[in-house]
């Protein structure tokens, strides 16, 4: 798939082959090593490694529409909803959403401080929607680490698609870093009734797939799990490229690396006002569904 494209892009005499370019990029993704170390292991110069990673990452990122996509038809939507339901009986879920920080070296320049996150480190804040099988279904990888999760979502294409009802009567599950919406359900801050507690428990269990997706993705590709030491202009392509490869690995049933959950990432909570039932969607779901499950001691 990449070979012919990389061959067309290679115009130098005695250039490294497309296969070698791919191997250099994969070694970088899988090790997170300095470019010089990757080059030394293959007997090529650091600049050659840099070009190979940049070229391969761009070409992999172009495959994004083929491997990273939300449900495209009714059958895919139903399959997604059923898979989420089977986790903890939470109905009508089309995706679990969250952000994770990919740490980077300081980009320098006048805008460097935009990339400093709440832990005083430099990063990109990457938004992902995952499905119940830990596939990455949507990704936004362009925001600096100082950006709030809810701001990234409000500026994203997936928000508009959910507002337009593209995926039918479904919703996303997010943590309390997101504002509660009719199409994005968050946990209750102070559950009191049995139904409310059951809602929170089911929500947490179901939404946990996005945390496990982050862990698997970063464990498989330590380049994004440790610190990216490349020029800022290459980072977005590298992140998306590894997301494409993650989904390919899932599709091919590659062995799952051990979970590496981002337990140290803080949630910048969006505080709610009013009662737990202020939002009619969440309130109706609890009263008509989770209260009944609680009465029947289900889940």
UniProtKB/TrEMBL annotation:
It holds the Pfam family DDE_Tnp_4. Its cofactor is a divalent metal cation. It comes from the Eukaryota. It is found in: Nucleus. Residues 97-247 form the DDE Tnp4 domain. InterPro entries: HARBI1-like (IPR045249), HARBI1_dom (IPR027806). Keywords: Hydrolase, Metal-binding, Nuclease, Nucleus. GO terms for cellular component: nucleus. The keyword Protein biosynthesis does not apply. GO terms for molecular function: hydrolase activity; metal ion binding; nuclease activity. Belongs to the HARBI1 family. This is DDE Tnp4 domain-containing protein. It comes from Mythimna separata.
């Amino acid at each position: 798939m990449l070979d012919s494209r990389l061959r067309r892009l290679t115009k130098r005499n005695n250039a490294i082959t497309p296969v070698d370019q791919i191997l250099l990029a994969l070694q970088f993704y899988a090790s997170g090593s300095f470019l010089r170390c990757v080059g030394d292991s293959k007997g090529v110069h650091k600049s050659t490694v840099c070009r190979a990673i940049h070229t391969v990452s761009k070409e992999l990122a172009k495959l994004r529409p083929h491997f990273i996509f939300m449900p495209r038809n009714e059958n895919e939507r139903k399959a997604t909803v059923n898979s989420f339901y089977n986790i903890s009986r939470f109905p009508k879920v089309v995706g679990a959403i969250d952000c994770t920080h990919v740490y980077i070296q300081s980009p320098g320049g006048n805008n460097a401080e935009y990339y400093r996150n709440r832990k005083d480190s430099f990063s990109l804040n990457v938004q992902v929607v995952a499905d119940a099988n830990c596939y990455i279904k949507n990704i936004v990888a362009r925001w600096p680490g100082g950006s709030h999760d809810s701001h990234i979502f409000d500026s994203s294409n997936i928000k508009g698609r959910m507002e337009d009802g593209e995926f039918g009567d479904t919703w996303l599950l997010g943590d309390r870093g997101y504002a509660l919406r009719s199409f994005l359900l968050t946990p209750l801050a102070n559950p009191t009734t049995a139904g409310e507690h059951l809602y929170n428990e089911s929500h947490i269990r179901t939404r946990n797939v996005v945390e496990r997706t982050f862990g698997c993705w970063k464990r498989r590709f330590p380049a994004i799990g440790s610190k990216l030491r490349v020029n800022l202009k290459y980072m977005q392509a590298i992140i998306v490229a590894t997301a494409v490869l993650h989904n390919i690995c899932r599709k091919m049933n590659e062995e799952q690396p051990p979970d590496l959950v981002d337990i140290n990432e803080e949630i910048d909570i969006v505080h709610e006002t009013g009662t737990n039932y202020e939002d009619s969607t969440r309130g109706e779901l609890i009263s008509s569904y989770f209260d009944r499950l609680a009465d029947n001691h289900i889940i």
